[in-house]
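Hey L., structure's done. Input below.
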Amino acid sequence: MKQTGKFIKKSLICLTAVSAFILAGCSSKSPLDPKNPVSLTIWHYYNGSQQTAFDALVEEFNDTVGREKGIYVQGYSQGSVSDLETAVRDAIAEKVGADPMPDIFSSYADTAYEVEQADALANLSDYLSDEELEQYVDSYMEEGRIAADGTLRIFPTAKSTEIMMINRTDWEPFAAATGASLEDLKTIEGVAATARTYYEWTDAQTPDIPEDGKAFYGRDAVANYFIIGMRQLGVEIFQVENGTMTLNVPKEELYRLWENYYVPMVKGYFGAYGSFRSDDVKTGELLAYTGSTSSAMYFPDQVELDEGSYPIDYIVMPAPIFENGEHYAVQQGAGMVVSKSDEAHEYASVEFLKWFTQTDNNLQFGCVSGYLPVQKDANHVEKLDQIIEARELTVAPKTRDCLTTILQEMEHMTLYTNKSFENGSAARKVLEYHLADKAAEDRAAVAAALAEGKNLEEASEPYVTRDAFEEWYTSFCDALNSAVNK
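Output:
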């Protein structure tokens, strides 16, 4: 079914048709023939239980709606997100040995924007009515409107945001001894203050070993900290209008971000050691972290130390926000795009994506993957519980608790992601690594000074002054400008 404007345009063409082909194209009939099924290839980055859940739904589609309409879907994992992006770029460039473009592939907005610039994506608005578009969460659909004319290119299929997860087993004795409260962890400033208390408390456990306090907290995706932290403070760091990006880097707001991430990192109150912060909880190096809702399944069941291991319980909380900040939360998770081809393949691709994102099917996938459903009526705890019961799903408690926590918060928060722009991937890498790399380097220097006998304040003092911030700020702005203007 076409959007109204497109339908009128095609109807007018029909009235003045000069060929039977054009007249046939204006028909509202499906271009599919169940006797001659259309085969679709999907590339994605799902692995493990996520891939199993996706494959099960694909099989269900093929056996039901696909068989009825004449659509057969085959899904292929390309490994990691990076592997998938490389495979797509190679296919577009028609590199020797590259596979041809798939009919559908998972894509984040920045990558989809690159492919759209190559004129390789189908206009999904041609295949969705206004009523169908209205069924989806508005911000998810808005993220997919990356075409110059505002039409849809990215179909939202599964989304995520961020949560905080805490090792309850080790939190409780610390809280009992110090008076620390979960209420304190609702703000970023409260997390930083609690982390300092935890460092000092753990340091005091071994009075014969000075300055051996432990880090309390870490976060995955530092770029999200910048984008969402600034938005909470009233600033859109990448402001995109009509395809043009304006960079907003006000000094005082960035100082708050620096003060509540870099300073605790340098002083050892925060930490980042393994590939992901859930790894650091597993090794006992952190007590809490902020990460994607889809990472809940990786939160460890036990802490593993050199001298042995012990089981732990968990707490799920909404991600902390800046004190007195607006309640923004990150909107993330790849959608799916359709390669530009012919009407039958594009139509069939959208039919599958509409089926996959129906409330029951989408929630079934989310129960395993930890992803949020994309239709408005699916984002309710009651609906989640109905699907779990009706389909007799086995859902990991951590995943269910994570989804429930976010679904209960949906009415009180605004999901946000910046619009796509040229060199957006390069700019995001600056946010991800510039401050984090400097924090790691300077923390190593502080640790060396501590080993030489200095106390923490003496060792960290050169790195946490206003002058140190000013130096970093200049370097950060230069790096961002270079990334967006290359």
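Residues 407 and 433 are 31 Å apart (CA to CA). DSSP finds 21 helices and 15 strands in the chain.

-- N.
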